[in-house]
């Protein structure tokens, strides 16, 4: 529920505030404890100097023979605040109980001094440091103590200052986080609003690039590219529906017209036969168009459903040329072998021979037909990874403004009225080439001819990709 209510902008603002707060608290803590530690060390150094001075003073005396449990007190407020110094002999039984009760310092502190030669100690207000020294045949302890005014008074002021700074920092970090999150999300909100305006009725709209924002501009470019593809797909769908409707309605209209005319009056047997022949011919055209449409649809699916074998493209090409020459002796096809590789294995592709035969035959047949059976040049070549097939004719070409529709099923260019055809050869060929992981490119100039370049990955490169 909480996540649903909080927007990403709010989450970002809270996250930034948490980060800023953690950093501020961390540095405040470091400053405070560093100062406290430094003040302790510095004050102990002063006390140590004072202890050394006391020892020098005592050692400078001509006679020092303090009885056990007698404390020589020194009060010296001139050097350190509320300084108190103590000198006493180490009890022979190492029992500091009486001294401890008198000066209100734990006996463990005295034992540490004796054990280590030097020790320090502090209570809530006073700091102590003590050292042992020897005079004559006795061991003595000298202790210097004073009140650390800095810790007692000035650290309190430091605490209040740091707390005030933390509160102010949190306040300004909240303002900064809000401003930063709003600045970061403003372009995203702007893009979201623009995307909501785009629908199927206005697919021409595009997102505007954001100034000085490389990452968002990449998103904008990607989204605009997607819109381009969707718009093209919509246009293709519209063209396909229009073309298919037109192509299917034409023979149906002819069939219905012939049947209507035949039934309007009584006719002779010969007339009925002629009418039925026309109807049969139109029905066969309709059947061929429907089968072609189904073929295009089927080749648009995943190529793995087709049986794939090792196919040598040079042999397939010779077979296609021979077939086309048998179908129409006017087909004038020249096979250019100058680009054939030395190793014939490079001409092998992984594919379905029947479908490849159909695709290549459609491309070459179109070249022969639309060039009025002038010579069509077919070139076959290969690199280490790919097989290339180029079909070049000098025919009527395709108007430049219609090039974007050449893959639409049943589309026929405006200059093909004098040529028979259904407009399915090229889209069918492209689907077959795609099934074989290949690429089909068409370049054309009206009245100068068309060049179709087909590329297939060879059999061995496909095997390496699968591995």
From TrEMBL:
Catalytic activity annotation: ATP + protein L-histidine = ADP + protein N-phospho-L-histidine
Regions crossing the membrane: 12-35, 161-180
A molecular-function term among this protein's GO annotations: kinase activity
Pfam family, one: HAMP
Predominant place of localization: membrane
Family annotation (PROSITE patterns): HAMP, HIS_KIN
Domain HAMP: residue ranges: 182-235
Membrane topology annotation: Multi-pass membrane protein
Statement: the UniProt record of this protein carries the keyword Nucleotide-binding: yes
Subcellular location: Cell membrane
Segments forming domain Histidine kinase: 243-460
Keywords linked to the UniProt accession: ATP-binding, Cell membrane, Kinase, Membrane, Nucleotide-binding, Phosphoprotein, Transferase, Transmembrane, Transmembrane helix, Two-component regulatory system
EC number: 2.7.13.3
InterPro entries in alphabetical order: HAMP_dom, HATPase_C_sf, HATPase_dom, His_kinase_dom, HisK_dim/P_dom, HisK_dim/P_sf, HssS/ArlS-like, Sig_transdc_His_kin-like_C
PANTHER family: SENSOR HISTIDINE KINASE CPXA
Name this protein carries in UniProt: histidine kinase
